[in-house]
Amino acid sequence: MSAEWDWTAETEIPSKLGAHLPFLEEVLSRMESLGWGGRDLFGVQMTLEETLTNAIRHGNHSDASKLVRAACKVNGERFWLSVEDEGEGFCRDDVADCTADENVGAFGGRGMALIDAYMADVSFNDRGNRITVTTHRGYRPPVDDAD
C-alpha cells in the first residue's frame, strides 16, 4: 500500500450538532471519487458520525465556544482520521460493552462498538480526548469463535 495520501484535510468545528456535516460530506465525496463505496464507505460514514458527534456532545458538552479538531487522510486504499475535543477526556475501559448480555438495551457504548466494527485500528491519547482510527478497503473485523 502506498504511503502517499491523495487527499488530506484539517478543520475546526464548533461544538454544535450539525456543524460537523459539511466536513463529513466532503470526506465522503472525496472517498467516493477515489473509488470507495458499499460497506467500506458506510463504515467510514458511521465512524465520522460517531467520532464527531461524541466529541461535540460528550467531550465538549455541546458548548459552541469549544472546538472539535478533525484531521483526515485518504487514498484509494486507506483512511485515517483523528478527532480531538477540548473536554476532560475519558477512559475507554469505562465504556460499557453494549454487546454484553447485561448491557443489552442500556444507553451508551454503541458508538464505540460501531467504530470497532468498521475500523482496523482504534487508539486514544492518554488524556482520552483524542481518537485516531484507520482502516483500509475490504477490512473485515476478525471473527470471534469463542461462542
Plain-language structure description:
The chain has 147 residues and is an alpha+beta fold. It has a single domain (7-136), classed as Heat Shock Protein 90, CATH 3.30.565.10. It is 30% helix and 23% strand. It has three helices and five strands. It has helices at residues 21-33, 38-59, 110-118, and strands at 7-14, 67-74, 78-84, 121-124, 130-136. A five-stranded antiparallel β-sheet has the order 1-2-3-5-4, covered by helices on one side. A hairpin with a 5-residue loop joins strand 4 and strand 5. It is globular and about 35 Å long. The N and C termini lie far apart (34 Å). The mean pLDDT is 89. Residues 26-134 form the Histidine kinase/HSP90-like ATPase domain. InterPro entries: Anti-sigma-factor_SerPK, HATPase_C_sf, HATPase_dom. Keywords: Kinase, Serine/threonine-protein kinase, Transferase. This is Serine-protein kinase RsbW. GO terms for molecular function: protein serine/threonine kinase activity.
**CA gyration radius, whole angstroms:** 15 Å
Q: What percent strand?
A: 15-25%
Number of DSSP-assigned strands: 5
Overall mean pLDDT: 89
For the record, the CATH architecture stands as: 2-Layer Sandwich
SSE sequence, one letter per element: EHHEEHEE
Shape: globular
The number of distinct helices, counting runs of at least 4 residues, comes to 3
Uncertain segments are none
Strand neighbour order, sheet with most strands = 1-2-3-5-4
CATH class: Alpha Beta
Distance between the termini: 34 Å
Helix content: 25-40%
Supply the CATH superfamily name.
Histidine kinase-like ATPase, C-terminal domain
Biggest β-sheet description? 5 strands, antiparallel
- What is the number of independent domains? 1
Overall structural class, as computed from helix and strand content, comes to alpha+beta
CATH T-level fold name: Heat Shock Protein 90
